Amino acid sequence: MTNAMHVAKTGLNAQQTRMQVIANNLANLNTVGFKSDRVNFESLLYQIKRSGGDQTSEGTALTSALALGTGVRAVNTQKLYTQGGMVNTDNSFDLAIEGQGFFQVLLPDGRVGYTRNGSFSRSADGTITTASGYVVQPEIRIPEDAIEVNISQDGLVFVRQAGQDETQEVGQLTLASFANPRGLQPIGESFVTETQASGAPTVAAPQAQGLGKLMQGALEGSNVNVVQQLVEMIETQRAYEVSSKAISSSDEMMRYISNNL
Asked: What is the pLDDT of residues 165-181, one digit of tens each?
């Protein structure tokens, strides 16, 4: 009975983990560039009481093993990098990626963070930054007297300065891609960082080497599917209740044995 209670407890822990992932997805429903997570599970070690093929008589053998499972555990979480919906903002510093790729941002600790959140601004010195003031890479400065900023689908940045009719190019935005984007490590603030699992980034201009194109004046919304998350929440709740019921039933069986033997 204690073994059954232990197995059921692993089920409770697994469903609590899944519920936390679902809650985080729903909490980030309106987070620009957010990619939903899913949790993957695996079974724990089996207790092999009798192996398949063991003899049952002189001329017969077991057709399958007597193996008792010891529960379940969460093995990892994965981000689902499907395209989010586009939201028009008419802000010249808002950028969305339609297709593959990540913006590159220099973090305060010196690392490069990668994000799909293109809600950018111009700092006091004209540098394009994130909402938190982190500098977008490669660093591009907009002249102080610029009255118009245009960013092409392939990342070229043009400005028109006061008193001029022609635009001039001031920089080139690039995107990064990874062989295994699910291997990237989320660190918060809509950023992910490179890991051994993701591989090294491939940096190129938008629309080159399979990368997506930039859309100026738009943002990519979260790809969280509310209906799907609510269905998974109900499934998780029911699974949690079943595991809890298994613990209660095991406890009642042990109580019965204690009171009647």
From this structure: 888 999 999 999 999 99
